[in-house]
Amino acid sequence: MEDHSLTCDLLVVGGGATGLGVALQAALEGRSVILVEARDFASGTSSRSTKLLHGGVRYLAQGRLGLVREALRERATVLGLAPHLAQPLSFVVPASDWLNWAFTGVGLKLYQWLSGRLSLGRTVAVSRQALTRGLPGMAGQVGRAVAGIRYWDGQFEDARLALALAQTAQRAGAQVHNHTRVSGLCPTADGWQVRLLDERLGTSRTVQARCVVNAAGVWVDELRRMALPSEDGAPPLQALVTASQGVHLVVTRACLPLREAVLIPHTADGRVLFAVPWLGATLIGTTDTPRSDAPREPQPMAEELDFLFRETRNAFGLALQPGDVRSVWVGLRPLVSASGQGDAAQSTSQMSREHLIRREAPGLVTVTGGKWTTYRSMAEEVLKTLQAHGDVAPAPNGPVDTRQHRLVGAPAPGDSTEQHPLSDAPGLHLWGSQAHRVQALPGADHALGLGLTEAMVRYAARHEWAFMVEDMLARRWRALFLDARQAASMAPQVATLLQEETGLDPRLGDFLALCQRYTLGD
């Protein structure tokens, strides 16, 4: 079954933070926009972050002050766009000696100074006694610290923030589709003809788009090869992106009781270690391991797990056992290769050294790299790049400042409703101003586990594009990322509800197999 009726100004490929940001920017500017995501919104890198909105403390030592200042500005913007999903968070950095303490303090004071009036809180010294009171019973580096430094950054719920972007883009007029992949892409006189396959229904359609934005994250090169096939005898298209793998462990709050985040700036191999209170649990991460492939569901390597277990013991004196880990998950970060940057030197607009915007051909732009914190400014730059090259006409609605456009679910300015910290267990508050709509559905008092109710599942199926159990328990509700075994026990009830709501196969078996991959053996 095929439908040839779709046309648009802009087709965005990729439903992560970057693609959703581009779709929202374009829709608010009055352009006709279609966004497609091959799997589910934020199912790749954008739901597997360390849940931090930050300017990048480690970049200070590299002298990249402009990059840090830009990210700090965007951090404040995101906190204002969705305060129910993005909030300030305090961090403690223990110091092993006074010289280290002084050096760290100067760097973090500079970090606060760079944020200017957008500072989230003062950077202050923490005495050994106060450190011990705040982190009771801790041994290791924390227990041996002579003192510490407290500074402030941002925390967010990445998967639900991506969903809020999708809903806001839809309200602005964008057509937004998950589980829809590109199966063909070729240039035409009027732009690009793109063939799409709806994985839910098994139907295909063709879209005529004036422009295509390739925002497929770590998989951008797959779409580039489809759009720009090499001619006979020509060298293959050079990859723009290489992948770096980050592994995270989740343990109960009782196992590692933190009221604020802890940053260990120097581990045995020079990487940093975070321990972050998140949704009632404690998140430990992350590794940074280059890899030559980009699987959809990457697995932790033995040496990465050894690193996290060893450094958790060194930092906190906590000898984790595999059975203590409620969930282990892996994200792939797209890193722009040096060769890719060199090849793109004449046709690339770079807003920072962390991401790349490249015009591949008339009406075709690839955007990759970067991080969650700067999704909005990256999207703004993509639209400016398209307009500067004449790929799109001036915006029908004129310039739009997305810094002022709050996302779906954000409370109205001045709303006195109590705000729950993101360190709390998940609950109805994650829907923000939409909570009353959730409660109006059947099953609001029928609990399924980990704070999830039947009404929440029904709402996600009707209004949040959820049809698979994975959609619901991995991203609409973070059960898989918080406790994979409990997610598996909740899955059959969720599958029944989703099938009742959508009439589609919720792929229960696939999800149960996925839960096994998020657990470690005892």
Q: Could you walk me through the main structural features you see in this protein, from its secondary elements to its overall organization?
A:
The chain has 522 residues and is α+β, with helices and mostly antiparallel strands. The chain has 3 domains: 2-45 and 160-239 and 337-403, FAD/NAD(P)-binding domain (3-Layer(bba) Sandwich); 87-153 and 241-331, D-Amino Acid Oxidase, Chain A, domain 2, CATH 3.30.9.10; 428-517, Orthogonal Bundle (Helicase, Ruva Protein, domain 3). Helix content is 34%, strand content 26%. It is built from 17 helices and 21 strands. The chain has helices at residues 17-28, 57-60, 65-81, 98-115, 128-134, 140-144, 158-171, 220-227, 302-316, 338-343, 375-388, 435-439, 454-463, 469-476, 479-482, 484-502, 508-517, and strands at 2-13, 33-36, 52-53, 86-95, 124-127, 147-156, 175-177, 180-188, 191-198, 203-214, 241-252, 261-264, 273-278, 281-285, 289-291, 327-336, 348-349, 355-361, 364-369, 447-449, 452-453. The strands form 3 sheets. Strands 3, 4, 5, 6, 11, 12, 13, 14, 15 and 16 form a 10-stranded mixed β-sheet that branches. The longest helix has 19 residues, at 484-502. Mean pLDDT is 92; it is low at 341-353.
